[in-house]
Design brief:
Number of strands: 14
Largest sheet: 6 strands, mixed
CATH class of the largest domain: Mainly Alpha
Distance between the termini: 59 Å
CATH architecture of the largest domain: Alpha Horseshoe
CATH superfamily of the largest domain: Tetratricopeptide repeat domain
Shape: elongated
Radius of gyration: 29 Å
Strand content: 5-15%
Helix content: 40-55%
Number of domains: 4
């Protein structure tokens, strides 16, 4: 196996990181020039013929000697070498080239230098834990960007199919990479992995070259290499070959099982990967484009289950961005249900499809169907934190708490799982316990912000504010609402909704202290995000001491809250009781014990009895 890194003169060449530095400063080299340098270094001191270099750098391509001569000239220029009196690359007339400098090879990657090694290698006890990073698009061609994720997904699936490795799912890898500051060691520590796959690809015309390494992050040693080259339309086979070469070098030859392909169409596969990259941004502006991508994939291959699953996810997320509107986009939810069911119909063994269907059915208030789908997903992939989170989302009471604990055992920094568990405690009236859980989750949310993560959690500071306000701590409640509002950018999924809720919570806190003018400004700010929102309108009416037609509110629980805020507590309690009588098992009305606009009616005897029933439903 070639060395992972070289040093010569003032230069350091790192094959794993795919870079060259001169005294710590990056040297700009094209991928072709870097490959040329690595090939010469691999044969340092030896004559490397022109034919060998042409075969290595331009396999199966009709390239003349002039292209090689030009490449060597450009490499010399980048290194500051003189062809007439070379320090590094000597021309052997009519035969080839020889690398003549003293070269120090290193089996360990230079990215694992002593200053950046794992501080506590004992924390990475599992020698078969592995994370596959997105592959680097070294040509920088935007049309090939989808392959970065596509190759990583396929190699992850292939390594998982070996049955030897604990492979971290790509979502967690992405989150770790975003916070690592370029440090592979930080990624490994965050994910508790010992091994990492680092790779790159060059897509030129109709051909692609993929190179990758399995690196032991503690030692920095590359323990397996892979290099494949071929036509782009053979990308599925080429990706599988990467894992096969890894298996061979790791002594697992012959154990790579044949992978089932969801689609034979490269264009459908590309459309799905591009759609997922848009969904992963959590940017509502990208969701219509994601729907178009998945729809294109379905049009190309109507039997492609993953395309229907992706389409259901994109439609569901689009619906969720409207759920607090006066007229939510129910057609998007209906389409998501239909496409989620189609994905399951096409492939009942696709755990991701069952998990997606669970999410969608929760929003459709089909609790029984959602729990069934989530349990099926967990049964198919019991070690997948996403399915456990979805089971928690679909279930209620103790089952939700168990699912939340299992999710956090696999992914301790998934802040939304804390929110999910806190909902149960709020419904039970266990505000102290809810606060404890939320403080853990909010601390994670704050770390995500501090580390500059692009998409930290939402909602935890808002809910913590509600809990503190329900315990009469208006000062801290206002601080929490303001923190939530500062984070919840309106273009993010749920950002507009939590911005509005944070304004309403702040306004309600100000009402308690008699600061009606300031409270009115908060409610008006909420209405800029959701014009006509009934709770903001009701709060504004209270602040301005004027009438408000609560009977026109369509949602019964919202109507009840507005009634209570305006002094009609008995009627509010009657409506809440009726809603709970008619609701199926689940989290209907879970937030009422901490609802800030109920505070004047919280001692109403009828409402107290109703909240006790709400607590019993959460057992």
């Amino acid at each position: 196996m070639p060395p992972a890194a070289y040093r010569f003169g003032p230069f350091a060449v790192d094959r794993v990181a795919y870079r060259v530095t001169r005294e710590g400063v990056a040297v700009e080299l094209t991928p072709k020039l870097l490959d040329l340098l690595l090939h010469l270094l691999d044969h340092a001191g030896e004559l490397v013929t022109k034919e060998d270099l042409l075969d290595a750098l331009w396999p199966d391509a009709n390239v003349t000697d002039n292209a090689l001569t030009q490449a060597v000239s450009e490499l010399r220029q980048a290194l500051g070498d003189d062809a007439a009196a070379p320090d590094y690359i000597k021309t052997v007339a009519r035969r080839g080239y020889r690398f003549v400098a003293t070269v120090h090879a290193n089996r360990s990657s230079l990215i694992a230098d002593p200053e950046s090694r794992i501080a506590n290698p004992e924390s990475l006890q599992d020698p078969r834990s592995i994370a596959v990073l997105d592959f680097t698009n070294v040509t920088g061609e935007p049309d090939a960007a989808w392959l970065s994720a596509g190759i990583a997904e396929t190699v992850s699936a292939d390594l998982r199919a070996l049955g030897t490795f604990r492979v971290v799912d790509r979502w967690r890898v992405l989150e770790a990479v975003r916070t690592a500051g370029g440090s592979l060691q930080n990624v490994a520590t965050a994910l508790h992995v010992r091994l990492a796959v680092i790779g790159s690809f060059q897509a030129v015309g109709d051909r692609i070259r993929i190179t990758a390494r399995v690196v032991d992050v503690v030692s920095g040693e590359a323990v397996a290499d892979a290099k494949v080259d071929g036509p782009l339309n053979a990308i599925f086979a080429l990706q599988d070959e990467v894992a096969s070469q890894f298996a061979s070098e790791l002594g697992l030859a012959g154990s790579v099982p044949a992978q089932r392909r969801e689609t034979p169409s490269l264009e459908a596969y590309r459309a799905v990967m591009e759609g997922w990259l848009r969904v992963e941004t959590l940017d509502v502006r990208e969701l219509p484009h994601a729907i178009d991508d998945f729809s294109r994939a379905v049009g190309i291959d109507p039997r492609y289950a993953l395309a229907y699953n992706g389409l259901a996810n994109a439609e569901f997320a689009s619906y969720e961005s409207t759920r607090a509107d006066e007229r939510p986009a129910r057609d998007l939810l209906d389409n998501a249900i239909a496409h989620g069911r189609q994905a399951v119909h096409l492939d009942d063994t696709l755990a991701e499809a069952h998990g997606t269907l669970a999410l969608v059915l929760v929003s459709a208030q089909d609790a029984a169907g959602a729990i069934k789908a989530a349990r099926r997903a967990v049964a198919l992939e019991p070690g997948n934190w996403r399915h456990l989170f979805r089971l928690g989302h679909a279930s209620w009471g103790e089952e939700r708490l168990r699912a939340g604990a299992a999710t956090l055992a696999l992914y301790p920094d998934f802040a939304f799982a804390y929110f999910q568990s806190a909902m149960v405690h709020v419904a039970r009236g266990q505000l102290t316990e809810a606060e404890r859980v939320l403080r853990h989750g909010a601390a994670i949310q704050d770390r995500q912000i501090g580390r500059g993560e692009r998409y930290p959690a939402l909602g935890l500071h808002w809910l913590l504010g509600l809990v503190r306000l329900a315990q009469d701590d208006t000062r801290e409640a206002i601080d929490e609402f303001d923190r939530e509002r500062a984070l919840a950018a309106p273009h993010r999924l749920y950002g507009r909704e939590y911005t509005m809720h944070a304004h309403v919570g702040h306004g309600a806190a100000l009402l308690r202290t008699g600061r009606r003018g300031e409270a009115a400004r908060c409610f008006k700010a909420a209405l800029t995000h959701y014009p006509g929102h009934p709770l903001a309108e009701a709060g504004l009416a209270v602040a301005e001491a004027r009438p408000f037609d609560v009977d026109a509110i369509l949602d019964p629980l919202t109507c009840a809250i507005a009634m209570a805020a305006l002094g009609r507590a008995d009627e509010a309690a009657t409506i809440v009781a009726r809603v709970l009588d008619e609701a199926p098992p689940g989290f209907t009305g879970w937030w009422l014990p901490a609802e800030p606009l109920l505070w004047q009616a919280i001692d109403n005897a009828a409402l107290k009895l109703t909240l006790k029933r709400l607590a019993d439903r959460a057992r």
